[in-house]
Structure formats: C-alpha cells, structure tokens
Fold:
Amino acid sequence: MTDIVKGSCECGGVTFELVGPLRPSIACHCTQCRKTSGHYWSATQVPNDRFKLTNDATLKWFRSSDSAQRGFCTGCGASLFWQKDGEAATSVGSGTLDGITGISTQKHIFIADKGDYYDIDGDMNSTSNKGNPS
Amino acid sequence: MSDFPTANSETATTYHGSCECGSVQFTAQGPLRNVNTCHCTQCRKSSGHFGAFIRIETEKLDVKPSDDLTWFSSTDRAKKAFCKQCGSSLFWVLEGRDNWSVMAGAFDDDIPVTLEAHLFTSEKPTYYTLKDGLPQAEHFDIQTSQQPD
Structure:
C-alpha cells in the first residue's frame, strides 16, 4: 500500500505522514487520555516504519506512565501521539489527520474511567473496561 | 499574576481540575453549565479527537499560577491554554469575554452536567458518528448558552 495520509498539529510545528492501511480508530477514556485531550482521545495506529515525521520542530514527548509516552506540540498543545514501550508502533490522534482517512471507530476502551458528563452511544461496536490504544 | 481570574468569596460547590502532570491546577465555582462539543478543525487538531468545554465566568475560576501554563493564539480572536510539560488541553478564551471555556476532561471531580449540543459539525471527520440525538450546528448557530456572539 502506498496510500499516504498526512497530519499535523494545529500550528504546523509538527507534521507527519502515515502510510496506509491505517488501523481503525480506538477511543480511549482513561484518565490520561481525558486529561491530555480535554475530553477523550481516539487514535489510529501504524507500525513505526510507516510513520514519518516531516517536521518535529516543536514535538515533545511526555512520559505519561511507566510504560508509555505521549507526543504533543509545545507550540499549540496538540495531543498527537502515544507510544508504548517495547512496541514498534505509534498511535496517532485521528483528529489530527487531514483529508479523507477512510477509517472508522472500532471500539471504546477504558470506559470504567470515562467522564460522568457524557454517554458512549455512538460507535459502540464494542467496549472494554481495560485495554490500551495499541 | 494579574491576567489570571481569581475566585470570589461566595460559598458554592467547588470543582477541582488539573493537567495530566499536575503542574497546572484550577478550581471552578458551581453551578456549572452543561458541556458543548466542538468538531472544528482547530479543536480536532488540538484535542486529537474533538473538543468538549464548559463556559465559566472568570470570577468563578481560580487558576493557580504556573510557569507551565502556555497560551497559543488559535485564531485572531481566540486563544487556548495548555500545559507545556504534559501537553494537556485546558482552556479556550474568546477575546473580550468575561468567561473562559474549560475543557471538560480537565476536571478531577465528577461534574454534575451533561452534553448539551455539538458545534461545527460541518467540519466533523467521518471516522466517528454522533448518534446521541443532541442538537447539532454546522457552525455556531444553535441558540445554546455557550455560543459566541
């Protein structure tokens, strides 16, 4: 596959390209994802050999747990990436992608930690109280 | 710091919020308005999915000063705040207003509110659907309590 999907943060300090096919989006309602996104986070994922940073001038990695790190833009604060230690793959916030992606939402995870101010009634093909966005 | 809102002395339910790393902390005096979501390109890029916010008068907000609280001019009239240590999205402020929109996910406490409406659905991507039956606006044209003028 040579389908390329481009994406960026809001200010353009971080730009990237993903080579398809993209994994369906998985929505994560864990506390960390809720904090970083301001609501909850939903991400596709590609192996790192199909993930190319084309501009990382303002990219910063934050260790969000003892087994994972998050990438965000220090220029605009965009919540961009998630990487689990030992896995050669990167989760990418689906909202940061440009144009037509062709993906859909596959499932919701960590719903035991979701905020009480909303219900999950959309793309609820499956849900899980646990799991991670990998 | 003079540009931070400070709490008044009224007794009301106080809700705590913070970024992921805890460097930025705030409190909001209730009662709180309901939550609007925003599917505009800027909110999608910033959140990684879509935005959800509660409009709160600045006199009811108390943001603890932090060197990590960073502002970004999202448009010529709007700016948003995030933590430069952990990247958490925190506030959205429209110029000239006496209120801030606080990201709903930033609250540590349970908040007794619900979603009210979805805004800027004209810019919503296709990878998720909205099936909750709440009012939707292609732009800011729903007569809700949180629309900008």
Observations:
- Chain A touches chain B through 48 residues (CB under 8 Å).
